[in-house]
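Why do we care about 3D structure at all? Because function follows from shape, and shape follows, mostly, from sequence. That is the central idea of this module. The next example makes it concrete: a single protein chain, its amino acid sequence, and then its structure expressed as tokens.
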Amino acid sequence: MKNKKIISSLNNILELELAGVVKYTHYAFMVQGPYRLSIVQWLRTQAQESLAHAEAVGEHITSLGEHPTLKISDILETHKHSTEDILKECLEHERTAIKAYYDLLKSVQNRSIMLEEFARTQIAAEEMHEAEVKKMLRDNF
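And the structure:
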């Protein structure tokens, strides 16, 4: 099952999840305004969840006898820090993660039930995050 495409997909996800830790933590620092506390709490929870996802992906990579990447996906600083801009960036990050997990699912389908179920669980979690962000943006988006 040591397929380069699977390992590449897992490492891509690892890079995205680690970038999510940094992005969500940064966003939490930058939120201002009347809803700051609740949004900061949500962002910090997202950062913790991204770290947990990264840890799970790293464990899957090493269980396949491979080496997890030390890279982190590109982190673009837009210098746009309104709550709406931050949430739009979060939405884009979630959509990128969903696509990456779907790519993993496609690579492992009918090859590993463990990785298929992992990918499906992560897709469900990321789609739920996407839905939450869309709800937070609903008045503005």
